[in-house]
Design brief:
Distance between the termini: 35 Å
Number of helices: 5
Radius of gyration: 20 Å
Structural class: alpha+beta
Strand content: 25-35%
Shape: globular
Number of domains: 2
Order of helices and strands: EEEEEHHEEEEHEEEEHEEEHE
Length: about 325
């Protein structure tokens, strides 16, 4: 269930397999820890040349990846501003991190699906932020990668010795038609969903509440294996969204859901049918209640387009970082 990255032939393979478009460049960058890195040299495409390919790259060193007006401590935008950013066609390119903007430019011209992305990103830990992209006529995706050396997006020079880790990913897919049943389409598109944790209505379940008394939501706990409550799935709803926490014990999932429910009360997810799955990295058999780690993926449907975001770096604040990606999602006005 949890996402692990394996480096093979300079590419990152995992539950999100990304093929680069092949941007390369000559690098003359300042060392890590000196803020934004400016790289000289012309960027060339090793694949199909596009007029939208950036002429220079600006990988980001030790930055949250947000715009100059947003910080990594922000959980997202307000409900009104989020709805506005989702519906507005006049968003400015300057709202995106430079690496994100270059990734969106690389996708341009290679897909018919609407292009967008988050304006608030997880904080880079110790390296440089770059990206790998893939685009086809009916889908596209972006994988942010943190490296120990600065590289242009999709650079074939990225290898296992330089990759610090993946931080986040997002993308969109155009379905053949608008789905009649959104739930099945959302489950199929969410990388964290599995049939092994599907809810069986005939199994015993337990009602609970997550969040504070003022902002709490009714929730249901389902045992995943037999009648044992050491391995459960916790489910609650927020508007048109379903939130599922899996992979651990009931107590750990309830504590994580407490924070998530409070966060979602103040920060609006995209106003469409959606599914948020949090895969807890606390072993179900553990007697210790812990919020030490999780991996989260959110996806939502607008018409026949499924968009998704995923925070792949395991951490105690992973669900909140994934919510940041979704609440700050902005369509790119090319």
């Amino acid at each position: 269930m949890r996402q692990h990255f394996v480096l093979i032939s300079g590419g990152i393979l995992g539950s999100l397999v990304l093929a680069g478009c092949g941007l390369n460049g000559n690098l003359n960058a300042t060392p890590a820890g000196h803020g934004t890195v400016h790289i000289s040299g012309t960027v060339q495409t090793s694949g199909v040349p596009t007029s939208s390919s950036p002429s220079n790259t600006t990988p980001t060193s030790n930055t949250s990846g947000s715009s100059s007006t947003a910080t990594s401590s922000s959980i997202g935008t307000s409900q009104s501003s989020t709805a506005s950013s989702l519906s507005s066609s006049n968003n400015e390119s300057s709202s995106f991190n430079p690496v994100v903007l270059q990734a969106l430019q690389a996708i341009q011209g290679h897909t018919t699906v609407s292009i967008g992305g988050p304006t608030i990103l997880p904080t880079a830990r110790q390296g440089y932020l770059t990206a790998q992209t893939h685009a086809s006529a009916t889908s596209w995706r972006v994988q942010l990668v943190e490296t120990s050396q600065p590289y242009a997006i999709n650079s074939p020079l990225i290898n296992g010795n330089d990759v610090v880790g993946g931080t986040a990913a997002w993308g969109a897919t155009m379905l053949a038609s608008t789905p009649t049943h959104a739930v099945q389409a959302l489950e199929a598109a969410n990388g964290q969903w599995t049939t092994h944790t599907a809810i069986i209505s005939s199994t015993p379940h337990q009602s609970t509440q997550v969040g504070t008394a003022q902002y709490g939501r009714p929730a249901t706990l389902y045992p995943v294996t037999g009648n044992q409550w050491s391995n459960t799935k916790l489910v609650f709803t927020e508007g048109e969204w379903t939130i599922e926490l899996i992979g651990s014990n009931a107590t750990s999932e309830e504590q994580a859901a407490y924070t998530i429910a409070n966060t979602l009360h103040f920060h609006a997810l995209p106003p469409y049918p959606g599914l948020m799955i949090v895969d807890m990295a606390v072993p179900a058999s553990s007697r210790t209640v812990s919020l030490a780690a999780a991996v989260t993926t959110l996806d939502w449907i607008k018409g026949s387009t499924v968009s998704w975001v995923s925070a792949s770096r395991v951490s105690s604040i992973n669900p909140e970082q994934a919510i940041q990606l979704a609440t700050s999602w902005t369509l790119w006005n090319k």
